[in-house]
Structures are given as structure tokens and as C-alpha cells.
Amino acid sequence: MAVGKDTIFDRFLSPLIRLAIDEAALERFYQSIDWEPAADRHRQPNLVYPEYYSSQNFHGIQGGYLNPHAAVSYDPITQYVLPPHETVVRQGLIDAVRVKPRRILDLGCGTGSTTLMLKQAFGEAEVIGLDLSPYMLVVAEIKAQKAGLNIEWLHGNAQSTSFPDASFDLVTASLLFHETPTAASRAILRESFRLLKVGGQVVILDGNQKNLRQTEWLTEVFEEPYIKSYAAGSVDAWMGAAGFAAVQTQEHWWVHQVTQGVKPLPGEDFDRVGVAVGSRDDDRIPDFGDDLQGFPAPA
To answer: How far, in Å, CA of 8 to CA of 217, rounded?
Structure first.
């Protein structure tokens, strides 16, 4: 969507949410941080931002997540637009974990809400949160420090993380894929497959693709440039194309879904990979080609 479009969020939801948010407190928080030096502590100077990320003004904010205002407003708004409750929604990802992870990577971690929950659930594990926005990582680090949680925050691209092969037991992503074009989502899953040890698990929490396809207004509520292509796709099929086995999606509070898969033993029969009912045949073929102001809406 174009920035400034008169969305349902702009007309109806934003005024209601603003009544519940302490805007003065948000401004004080914003002013309390010297953003560029703080972001420089995380920023990788040689990181090249994907065009899909740097060219979009996500949620009506100029510069999208490469703007500290997005980091400040994300949490206060998100709590009101993830029914029935943000923590309950994110807990769906935690509950889907079947492995006993010693090393966890949370991709597109944003302000770290799910990352913190992963560390709380698996206290003995090493937990790493990775995101393209150094400003989101500033907020994530503050939250972790307040919670007394030891989490490593890294500035990086989920499509190409530079970690060694087979270096994680669990790879997760929350509310990331509806904000990436299909080619990027599939590339992220291929990278997740590479990063996982045999028997390792990937868990993806995001919008319910089936219901998004059937309820068009949900794709029109927020300024989400890639949500329609996300709704038209199938995370199950993308996982299958990446090589994951035992793929399954569970509906989560109607609006959301949790999809999980495991990295099988080398040579395991590809037919064991679960593929979504009704998915297109081309989604089943592995893709190894080129991958391509006011209050904003949340992810």
C-alpha cells in the first residue's frame, strides 16, 4: 500500500488505540535515548539492506523500521492488535517447540518480545535475536536488561546470516513473513534449513494464510506492502521446498497460524514432507534461483 492511504486502521482503529496509549510517555522514552550512538552499538556497517526492506515505508512511517520512531511505537500498539492477547499469541510459538534446544536463533526478532519468551522458556539455552533494524535491537536490548535475561542481539539479514552450517537446534520467526515478499520468505526458510542440525526444528508464527485469503479486509487494515502475496502463498509448501519434513500448520486463535517442520536425516524421502492442502504445484518445487506520520500500524 502507498504511504498515507486512508486505511481502516487510520479511520477507525488508530483513534481508539491512541486513547489507550500514553503518548507523552512514548515521547519521553524516545527523547531518553541518543538513537544513533545506541544503534551504532549493533549496526553492522557492511550490511546491505534488501531492496524490499529499505524501499518500503512500513505502517505509514517514513523509512519503515529504519526509523527509531517505529521501534518506540511498536510494542505499545502491537499489544492491542494481536487478538486475543499479544502474549497468548506469541505463546503459541513457544508451545509448538518439540526439541530441547541448546542454541536458538530468532529471526526478524524486532523489539524482542518473542525472543524474551524463548529465553524464559528455555533458560539454559543460548538465545540470539537477529534483525535488520538496529533501532529495534536497541529497544530489544533494553527490554532484556530490564528482565534480567542474557540474550545476544545481532544486526543481520535473515536470508544470509553468516552463521556456520548446523549451528542451531531451533530457528524461529514471529510476524516476519507477512512483511517479506515470497522470494525472501523462501530464502529465509532455506537459510533456516542450513542453520539447523539434523533433527532441529523451525517454528513460524504469523497470520493465518487461509483466513487472510477468505477475508480480504484483513489484508487492507494496515499498511503492509507484502501481506497479499503472503496470504496467497503457503508456508507449508515453502518449508517443503526448503527440505523440511513433518511440516504442519496449526490455526491459532483464527487470525494466526503456527507452522513447524524438522530437518530430516540426509536422504530421507522427500514425500514425507507435509504440503498444505490446495497449495499450487509450483510451490512444491524447491526454489534455488535468485531471490530476488501519526501512529503507525503494528506488524
So the answer is: 9
First-last CA distance in the chain: 14
Cell numbers of 58, please? 512500513
Mean pLDDT per segment of 10 residues, for the chain of length 299 residues?
43 52 87 98 96 79 85 88 92 98 98 98 98 98 98 98 98 96 98 98 96 76 80 97 98 96 82 39 39 37
Looking at residue 79, its pLDDT comes to 87
Q: What is the pLDDT of residue 164?
A: 98
The pLDDT of residue 255: 92
Which of 193, 174, 177 has the alpha carbon at shortest distance from 185?
A: 177
In angstroms, rounded to a whole number, what is the distance separating the alpha carbons of residues 25 and 244?
A: 45
Cα 160 to the center of its chain, rounded Å: 15
* Cβ(203)–Cβ(93) below 8 Å: yes
